[in-house]
Structures are given as C-alpha cells and as structure tokens.
Amino acid sequence: MSNYKRLFTADGKPMHVVGTIQLTLDIQDFEIPVTFHVLPRLQFDVILGTHFLSQTKANIDMQSQILTLYNDSVGANLLNSSDTIVRTTEAILIPPKSECIIPVMVPPDFGTGLAIIEPSAKVHKLQLALAKSIVSPVNNRTVCKLMNPTDVARFLRRKTPLGIIRNLEIDGVTVMTDSNSNTHDMTDTCIDTNTDLTEKLRQLKEKGITLERNSLTTAEFHKLVDLLFQNRDLFATSMHDLVGTTTELMHIDTGGAKPVRKRLYRQSAELQRQMELLIDEMLAAKIIQPSESLV
C-alpha cells in the first residue's frame, strides 16, 4: 500500500490510493525506475510530481520547451499534441567543429506548407546545435542545419530525432513592403540626394558596373542604381580592395609533414612577366609577404 495515508486534489477533495507500482521510465534511452501511486479515475495517465523532479534534479526550460534531468545528462521535449518529430533519413557522421546540412524525413500525416523546425532534446543531449529554420517540406522531406561545436565527431543513426516541426501560419511572418515599412520609405527618400543619377552611374562604371534600364520602370531603375551605389565599396577592382580581416586567424595544422620540394622549370617569357606583375601587385597590397627563408 502507499506510504501516503491520504491524498487530496487541488480543491481539497480526498483521493483514494489503490496501491503502488514500480515502473521504469524510458527517456531518450535513459531508464529511470519510479514508484507510482495508483489512483482511480485520474485525468492523466501519468503525473510526475515535485518529488520526482527533485530526485532527478530536473530543469524545465519553458522558452525552449525542454525538460532535462540529472544535470542535463538526459532530456525530453515538452511536446504538445500537435508536435511532430523530424528524423534523419540516413546515418551520418558529423566531424568536430563543423556544420552541415542534413536531410530529414517528415511524417506523412504532417502535410505540406510553410513550417518551422526547432531543436529537440536529443540534439541537446548530443551537445549539437540545430538552427531554427523555416521550411516547406516536399514529399515528406526537408533539411536541417546542424552544427557540432565540440572537439569530438558525433555519429547519428538513421531515424535519429533532430527537431520538432510545426505548422507556420503566414500571418506569423512579418513581410516588409513599401506599404508597411516606414523605415524602408525613409531610406528610399534619403539615399544620396546630393549625388545625381549621372554621377552615380559614372562612379559605378569605374567599378566595372554598367547598367541599362531595359524593361525597368524609371522608379525601379533608380532604386537599382541607388542600391548598387550605396554598396559600391563591396566591389573590388584591384588587389588593394581585398583588405582581408584581422578578426579571425586561420591555422593550418600540417602535422609532421615535410615541405614539398619540386625542381624548377622554365616558364614562357609572357607567363613569367604576368606572374611577376601579379606577385608585385599582391606584395603592394600586403596580401603576401616574402618568405622568411629569403629575407
């Protein structure tokens, strides 16, 4: 019999305990033995109380709708009845510190149309990161972007649950148009008013961009010119425009490999001249530098 002599509902009504039963919960292949009290006419099949949550060190993340137990050792999604799981179509090995696009299968009863995919608890358990994405499944198939930020390769079996797919109403997506975006209108009216169309076209031509109106309306052509003119610094016309970045340094680990040494062979006079011009240009732009062994 139950150790609890009397149980009460939230409104104070007594509940009769029939007895107890020992069951095993299987959460993401993690088995947890639990003693349940058996009650007649219970609204839900199973209720996990605060005693269970305390013993298993449970953490409930309402924002991501994920329940984790035993200090994040295992987790499960707090699923609604409308939630549907997408799973891998085949086994895949994800290298460490990499990201990839993975094909997934959608249950046939989900249907078609715009949908959103969010991470599942299985991804959290594997220490992987699944990007939230808006998709439109075709033939019960779509893709997910998965990242492995760890130093260990992760192997996913076929039909591994990756995410939860939900229908997405078009009303939930904000579409920015001329009619509902004051900022967009303001941008259009404040673009380089001091520079006329002829001067913009001349500067774009210096960048190697030649525009013709063709079938565009006057307003469309002006918008196109304004867009390219605002972003003209993105077009490189020489090595000096390839400024590079100091934000991230690339390290290539060659291990114990020895340098490759090849015999010199003669180039044609014209090819040799072109090579020297390119080398001088890259040196001037500081894209390359002399080898230490030659300094």
Describe this structure in words.
The chain is α+β, with helices and mostly antiparallel strands. Among the domains are: about 5-55, no CATH class; about 85-170, Distorted Sandwich (Deoxyuridine 5'-Triphosphate Nucleotidohydrolase, Chain A), CATH 2.70.40.10; about 180-235, no CATH class. Helices cover about 20% and strands about 25% of the residues. It has helices at about 50-55, 120-125, 180-190, 195-205, 220-230, 270-285, and strands at about 5-10, 15, 20-25, 30-40, 60, 65-70, 75, 85-90, 90-95, 100-105, 115-120, 130, 135, 140-150, 155, 160-165. A hairpin with a 5-residue loop joins strand 1 (about 5-10) and strand 2. Helix 4 crosses helix 5 (about 220-230). About 10% of the residues are buried.
Keywords, separated by commas or semicolons:
alpha+beta, Deoxyuridine 5'-Triphosphate Nucleotidohydrolase, Chain A, three-stranded antiparallel beta sheet
